[in-house]
Amino acid sequence: MKSHARVVVIGGGVVGCSILYHLTKFGWTDVVLVERSELTSGSTWHAAGGMHTINGDPNVAKLQKYTVELYKEIEAYSGQDVGLHMTSGLMLAATNERFDWFKSLLAKGKYAGGEARLVSVEEAHAMMPLLDPKEFVGAVFDPHEGHLDPYGTTHAYAQSAKKNGAEIYLHTKVEELIQLPDGMWRVVTDKGEIRAEHVVNAAGLWAREVGRMVGLELPVLAMEHMYLITEDMPEVIEFNQKSGRELMHCVDFDGEIYIRQERNGMLMGTYEKDCRPWSPIETPWTFGHELLAEDIERISGELEVGFRHFPAFNNAGIKTIINGPFTFSPDGNPLVGPVRGMTNFWSACAVMAGFSQGGGVGLALAQWIINGDPGFDVFAMDVCRYGDYATLGYTNAKVRENYSRRFSIRYPNEELPGARPLLTTPVYDKLKAAGAVFGASYGLETPLWFAPEGVEDTFSWRRSTDFEHVGNEAKAVRVSAGMMETSGFAKYLIAGEGARSWLDRMLAGRIPQEGRMALTPMLNEAGKLIGDFTLAALEDDEFLLIGSGIAEDYHMRWFEQHLPEDGSVEVDALNLGLLGLSVAGPKARDVLQKLTHLDLSDKAVPFMSVREIDLGMAPVILGRVSYTGDLGYEIWMKPEYQRYLFDLIMEAGEEFGISLFGLRALNALRVEKSFGSWSREYRPLYGPLEAGLGRFIVHGKSADFIGKQAALEEKASGGTLRLITLIVDAGDADVIGDEPISLNGEVRGWVTSGGYAHASGVSVAMCYVPKEIAEVVDGWQIEILGEMLPARLQPVPLFDANGSRMRS
């Protein structure tokens, strides 16, 4: 065994071997993989081996497409047969609601060159004669689906890596991980010790245990998963003989099953409602090439539907039942990337769809380790998308919910109940009493809208029961004043004698003087957007930074990676230690002026200023800014003052008709201003000029901010894309994001977000298109639920185009 290596990958499943291969592919050959047993000993060996390229997140779909295309490459390079069967596939809809979802899903793939298409029930039956056409209303055909041999594929990755110089140590159990003062890792195994610069946790079923070796509790849980394999079926043999090909892979979402051909029979699997976690507290190290006890009764309901939808199964004998554990994260996506607070400790676990995503995960992580960046936007898989609220109990509840709903429709306005409520603020009960319908964001209950008594949230792809009431909330803000809770925003306190100079390097915008605020983007080395913030200078060496709540750990990881070693800067994520309320609308100043003897006039507290004052008896930080684009204020207070302030403001605002509003109304207000949002318009795919934030970049400031050279190059070249706003001639449904945009019949861009702008009475879509066509007014179309709807450019914000209202 080597005594030193640049990278040690822990885990010999398909993900660990993919990471090892990609590291060597990019030139890092001093790398090793350690596996406690044999390759594929965890979940990999008993996987069904299915693969597909379609995913609801276009960025994840790209990684899946890369994974599928990689198999022929590693097979040829390694000489190891991967057992590739590119059969194509069908996704089946038994209801019109599901068919609407298919339309939305297909639209997302159009601008990425997806080849999947809608087919009729008759076409689907011709492709897959085992299905009963009376049970379905339509389907999606995808040419890039199939299955492979898990053993052969994993060994192809491993052999390719070894051919490039990597070493693999089997029957070598990691027993301890210790980081030394110089940042190097001691990887202590039962066969000896390796000193490594980087450690990758790709331990699969044991990822949780490996994480605990370094004091980390990963939000990952194994679930029992069953599928059956039939005896030889004459219908299968007959189809093979007549067509000369295999039966294709099918996913029957409404039946909650998947099927594919296995030799002369069929494989049928399900994600059952009556699901079972496996070993929820600890994974035994003695578990290996074993299966769990069969429990066919537990999936009998799903099998009954499957046998009805595919009648040939009624006459088939069952040859084998496979029940094995697979790991899941709370939302079903992998947990990938550097772990916050640790040096060179990497996560690559919870990759449930290993044969669809393993290659892409290996590519992303290898580039991240080598270049300091994954090379594309992988936020949906980033391990830092969860905070410390994702405890063992939370993970257990959410994974069970996610597993049992894997084939269920998730509507754009649907909020799932698992592990809720968890985090609440002092005004939660008051908001609930006022009719608040809550969503959970980063574990926190946040009001989405306020429902009158007797009105419930009905889930739909189209405008729903909330539409009228969200409209009333938005219009009230524009006419008078509204208040919403902003506690879900991320809040950071940056202090110390080096705070100003450090922020000048971290942020690409202007650093304000004491008492002032500034909007400022944050870039990575490639000049792409990794954050957009409001920065308030409380004192010359103390700053409050406000950003997206879901990105708190993501941003804290970045901040901590770049802190000076001399201790001159301290960064604290305040989380729920600082809570917020926002008051906005033309009467907002009148409401707050009743609560203080201090002058709140525009002259005394101008736009983008910040003050530490008292409102009533409560000390607050008052910022003259609002994401509504209207006259407005953000108010930040310690938790113990929030209930008092809530009542105080509502009482003061009664004479002005103040009302409560939620995040859905805020969305309707911000799209009227063409304000972008993190993870939609602002993400590492785009440069600041492309995103319309070029005016906030101080290219000429003396500080050598991160991404400065790339930002200068973008300024000189103009970039390639532009963020624009379109008005859509929508019917009863609005954009939700990722819909394709066509100009004169050709797909030229994509929607990032949008919705109905109630106060203006129009449907809005924010979109990225090539810069050369960004000023074209007419000829646009946006596909919504299969309909091509006309759209036109909105060159200036719908509301307060010159910004006079928010500055008055």
Q: What this model shows, in words?
A:
This protein is of the alpha+beta class and 808 residues long. It folds into 4 domains: 4-328, FAD/NAD(P)-binding domain, CATH 3.50.50.60; 490-573, 2-Layer Sandwich (Alpha-Beta Plaits); 579-652, Probable tRNA modification gtpase trme, domain 1 (Gyrase A, domain 2, 2-Layer Sandwich), CATH 3.30.1360; 703-807, Elongation Factor Tu (Ef-tu), domain 3. Helix content is 25%, strand content 27%. Strands 4, 5, 6, 12, 13, 14, 15, 16 and 17 form a 9-stranded mixed β-sheet that branches. Strands 1, 2, 8, 9, 10, 11, 18 and 19 form an 8-stranded mixed β-sheet that branches. Strands 29-30-31-28-22-32 form a 6-stranded mixed β-sheet, sandwiched between helices. A hairpin with a 4-residue loop joins strand 13 (249-252) and strand 14 (257-262). Helix 12 (467-479) packs across helix 17. The longest helix has 21 residues, at 58-78. The radius of gyration is 27 Å and the shape is globular. The model has no long low-confidence stretch (mean pLDDT 96). Its EC number is 1.5.8.4. Pfam families: DAO, FAO_M, GCV_T, GCV_T_C. Keywords: Oxidoreductase. This is Dimethylglycine dehydrogenase. GO terms for molecular function: dimethylglycine dehydrogenase activity.
